[in-house]
Amino acid sequence: MPSLKDIKKRIGSVKNTQQITNAMKMVAAAKLRRAQEAAVSARPYAEKLQSVMSNLAQREEADGHPLLCQRGTGRALIVLMTADRGLCGGFNANVSKAAERFIRDNEKGFDDIDLVIVGRKGRDFLKNRVGENIVKVHEDITSDATYKTAQLIGQEIIAAYSEEKYDAVYVIYNAFQSAIVQIVTEEQVLPIQPQEAEEETVNSIDYIYEPDRTEVLEQLLPKMVEVQIFRALLESNASEQGSRMSSMDSASRNAAEMIDKLTLQYNRARQAAITKELMEIISGAESIN
Amino acid sequence: MADTLKLEMVTPYKQVLSVEVDELTAPGFVGELGLLPGHTPLLTTLKVGQLTYKSGGTVTNIAVNWGYLEIEDDTVTVLVDTAEKADEIDLARAKAALGRAEDALNTLSLEDKKYKVMEAALQRALVRIQVAGGGH
Q: B17 touching A, CB under 8 A?
């Protein structure tokens, strides 16, 4: 049976922990709101680009461009989005495991798969599992993902793809569904697969392209890749905050439960001590009489 | 045929504009581009420059930075990296950037990789100053 003092100490320490988890929850909630707004406001751009793109693809036998043509299953590259910090539930482990599975199972039959990781936690997780596949790690960019960072990553990927270092590029990230639900998503980035537009949008009138079609395509396609990376970054960031918020919430609740239990134990021990003292006094008094 | 154009401008961060406009001038890749309702479908890339639209008699200038413009059925979709209205531009910062770019361009050689970067920065600064000053 632990002494009164021990129990009191433990209550104090659990209370401290609870304070920290509570504060983290608050911070995550505030960040989540911002991250969510960023993810939502980035959507129109991606949608517009997508529709311009599919309009273009319909009018064009879009196979001439290197970023569009299928090159089969040689080497693949995965861009994995994780967080720099932990304490966010299964967030990092889930995507990292998905990436590991992708590499191990290799369902599409690639000769070799390389891995670019965004976020420290993904690296820590995969270093000892598939360390030889990791080619690059980006750190400290997730918390305030700007379009610039996405652009840099995108341009790297495009460069490597154009040099035929890779024949396909995928991105694996946590898609944001709600604060509690994140879905591990795997998307193909390259070669670009233009979505089919609805039939009605087909216009018989010929478009004017300035400067010309190939030039427009030349500039549009890299944008697609950048936007896809940017969106994945934003979604991943929102997911991270959501995941942290909910896991810190349950941690705070667990701490509260623990404090209740310890307080009960403390009171029982205190009462037992008082009873014992009383008994001693009474028996002492009795022996005098 | 509608007598106005629907202008939608989006950047990667947010939707900047969604307004009805009477006419529109954009910095097209091959030259300044004037658009009126009833324009034939067009898809063009944009350079760094000043985009101007007239809506109900008021003229608004926006500094844009690389992007695309699509017009179809009197709907103009503009996708740009950045878009700033006159009152959003920090003139002092733009002037400082202009000074920096000019200095750099004076010292760099033409072959230097940075030359193009600084040249673009110079362009952006110039456009910003122009727009902040009420356009041309």
A: no
What is the pLDDT of chain A when averaged over all its residues? 85
In angstroms, what separates the C-alpha of B32 from chain A's closest C-alpha? 12
Separation of alpha carbons A215 and A219, rounded Å: 6
Q: What is the pLDDT of residues A119-160, one digit of tens each?
A: 898 888 888 888 788 888 888 887 777 888 888 888 888 888
pLDDT band, very low/low/confident/very high, at A206 (cuts 50, 70, 90)? low
Cβ-defined contact of B72 to A42 (cutoff 8 Å): no
- Top-level CATH class of B90-132? mainly alpha
Task: Please state, in angstroms and as integers, the Cα–Cα distance from residue A32 to each residue in A28, A38, A45, A233, B91, following that order.
Answer: 6, 10, 21, 14, 33
Tens digit of pLDDT for each residue in A65-109? Answer: 777 777 777 888 989 999 988 888 889 999 999 988 888 888 777
pTM: 0.82
Answer whether A205 touches B (CB < 8 Å): yes
| Token pair 């479908």: residue | B41
Which domains does chain A possess?
Answer: 4-20+248-283 (1.10.287.80), 30-244 (3.40.1380.10)
A interface test, pick of B43, B45, B70 with most A CB neighbours within 10 Å:
B43
Of A147, A203, A208, the CB nearest to B13: A147
Asked whether the beta carbons of residue A45 and residue B43 sit closer than 8 angstroms, the reply is no
Dihedral pair phi/psi, residue A77, rounded to 5°: -125, 135
- CATH 2.60.15.10 for domain B5-87, yes or no, is yes
The catalytic position among A57, A88, A160, A245 is A88
Residue A72: DSSP 8-state: -
Query: What is the predicted pLDDT for the residue at A196?
Result: 59
Q: In this predicted model, what pLDDT tens digit does every residue of B43-90 receive, in sequence order?
A: 888 888 888 888 888 888 888 887 888 888 888 888 888 888 877 777
Lay out the sheet containing A182-190: strands in order across: A134-138, A112-118, A75-81, A168-176, A182-190
Which of B15, B40, B68 is opposite residue A52, by nearest beta carbon? B68
Interface test with A, best of B1, B10, B80 (most A CBs within 10 A): B10
Q: Are B11 and A208 a contacting pair at CB < 8 A?
A: no
ipTM comes to 0.74
Give pairs for A136-140: CB < 8 Å, separation 24+: A139/A84, A140/A84
Task: Please state the domain extents for chain B.
Answer: 5-87, 90-132
- Contact yes or no for A45 and B44 at CB 8 A: no
- Please indicate whether the domains covering B5-87 and B90-132 agree at the CATH topology level: no
